[in-house]
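User: Could you go from structure to sequence for me? I need the amino acid at each position, not a summary. Structure tokens:
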């Protein structure tokens, strides 16, 4: 008998984890045996759809890691078994949590090579889009690239930088770096643009939009520029940033952000749909998708 959805209209899938006992670091037992056949089937359907869409769209490093971690197996992964495969490769583990954890806790996990993954799977009525990270977004979207040594180093460096950013009150700028790379980043491969951001990889519709729709801007990644750029959280991105390689991303980011925060303090924010003079523009978006939506919503 699963608990009735509570007043916050949390799904039954999520409320059982919200009520579960949690440790001081906000982790809890995944209780893999508690997943129903319907929940495992939902994972399989999400996985099958993503695999179809991501052929020729996801970066090679991601597709290779899906095999290495045997994420092609059916059903919601047992995070202990997944961690046993991942840890020997790059030292990373995947730890179950009930929902978003406080920033300082999140950064501490990343700094110690522990990726916090939502243990719940999205309910049937949110198959196409949900705001908060469920196990499909976190494990299918974020975890595979943690098997890539360079990316694994970048993610740990981000965790260490996050703790410092909190002390300096600079979280907003640093969160933008995470948003436009780890969540919504694109990669320039020899065969064209490819996806590496988890927010795109875990969304079949955005996987197509991000690479092929003429609406969004696609701009060469530049650290300070990205850290000045606002973003939207409830729709497709208006701009995507393109890195040349994970090595270059790590090299750009592996520095003392102190001086960067100082120069950012005096710089104006850049709106998500803006292109600025210093941009290396790969594709200047028409923004049609966004203006049409605004026009449509203005009608009624
Ligand atoms: N908690 N579980 C979880 N997953 C996240 O991705 C996450 C989080 N807490 C905070 C957070 N992300 C972002 O605000 C970071 O940029 C700090
Ligand atoms: Fe995410």
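Assistant: Here is the amino acid at each position, in order:
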């Amino acid at each position: 008998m699963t608990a009735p959805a509570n007043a916050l209209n949390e799904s039954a899938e999520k409320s059982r984890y919200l009520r579960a006992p949690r440790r001081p670091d906000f982790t809890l037992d995944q209780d893999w045996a508690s997943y129903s056949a319907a929940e495992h089937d939902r994972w399989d359907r999400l996985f099958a759809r993503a695999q179809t869409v991501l052929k020729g769209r996801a970066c090679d490093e991601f597709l290779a890691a899906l095999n290495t971690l045997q994420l092609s197996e059916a059903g919601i992964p047992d995070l202990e078994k997944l961690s046993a495969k991942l840890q020997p490769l790059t030292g990373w583990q995947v730890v179950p949590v009930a929902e978003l954890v406080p920033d300082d806790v999140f950064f501490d996990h990343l700094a110690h090579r522990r990726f916090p993954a939502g243990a719940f799977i999205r309910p049937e009525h949110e198959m196409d889009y949900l705001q908060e990270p469920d196990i499909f977004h976190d494990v299918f979207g974020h975890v595979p690239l943690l098997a890539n040594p360079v990316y694994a180093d970048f993610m740990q460096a981000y965790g260490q930088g996050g703790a410092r950013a909190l002390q300096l009150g600079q979280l907003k700028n640093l969160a933008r770096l995470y948003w436009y790379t780890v969540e919504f980043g694109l990669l320039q491969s020899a065969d064209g643009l490819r996806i590496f951001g988890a927010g795109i990889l875990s969304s079949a519709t955005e996987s197509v939009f991000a690479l092929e729709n003429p609406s969004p801007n696609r701009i060469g990644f530049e650290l300070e520029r990205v850290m000045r750029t606002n973003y939207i959280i409830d729709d497709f991105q208006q701009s995507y940033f393109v890195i040349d390689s994970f090595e270059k991303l790590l090299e750009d980011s592996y520095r003392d952000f102190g001086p960067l925060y100082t120069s950012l303090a005096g710089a104006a924010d850049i709106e998500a749909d803006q292109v600025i003079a210093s941009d290396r523009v790969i594709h200047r978006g028409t923004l049609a998708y966004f203006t049409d939506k605004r026009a449509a919503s203005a009608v009624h």
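One structural detail worth keeping in mind: The CA atoms of residues 86 and 92 lie 6 Å apart.
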